[in-house]
Design goal:
Layout lengths: L1 H16 L9 H21 L1 H5 L1 H29 L11
Length: 94
Amino acid sequence: MFFIVFLLLAGMFIGYRGRKKGAGKAGRLIFPATCLLLFLMGAEVGSDAGLLRRLASLGSDALWITAGSVLGSCLAAFALFRLVPVKPSRNVRS
């Protein structure tokens, strides 16, 4: 776990230091890296027989958690928009 946190902090440091030196080229690597991570996670889940047996119950739990998260986020956004006045910007192009 410490190694993962170290890698995250090291990446943040390198990104911060290289932001003016054209480190934006790393953006081209993000999509393939994300695809590779998703593939590896799918392979890991597919190889776990116990997880596959419990997939139906885990799926329903995940559905409820997702629905609650979306509903909570929408309610919080609605409350924020009601509480914080927003002035229209003059720089909006139509």
